[in-house]
Amino acid sequence: MGEHTLLVFTRMNREANAYYEFLDATQTLQLQVAQTIKTHSPGILILRVVFEGDLTTALREAFRKHIWLLRSLLKVTKADRVVDVDDEESISGLSAWINTWLNGAKYRITVHRVKNQETKARLIHLITSSIAAPVDLEAYEREVIMYLVDSKLYLTLGSENEISIQKLESYDDFDKSFS
Length: 179
Known about the structure:
The protein is an alpha+beta fold. It has five helices and nine strands; from the N terminus they run βαββαββαβαβββα.
């Protein structure tokens, strides 16, 4: 079985409620929560889960079926890699891995939760050191998303690994209009 790291974004001070909403919505999946990490960042939990198969699709469908009970849970992001923010060698090492995933496609990098512009520029420079693909901030084909949480950098390749409850709700409303 595969182990995955999830960033769970919640309403402020509603982490416990969001955690139980997550468990309720996923109870029919063969998903095992191996570890729950409460962060120093309000509104963010880190879950290490064990699941075999396409986790993002399974979560999206489970949340869609249980949308009525999700009031504290805002978004879930599957992290493809996790590195320490101070480990410049590891961050630079991810560049070749990302380059392979991009395969020459136009891309952009989105950095969340970094307020210091110097730190943001340093992270982007490190992560792009070996990327040969062209950057295009508006007409990009692929997106690398980074979150800085408690001195760890969580990388997600593609927004399809993020499940926004708000987007699911609006999609469901759109979907019902054709019924």
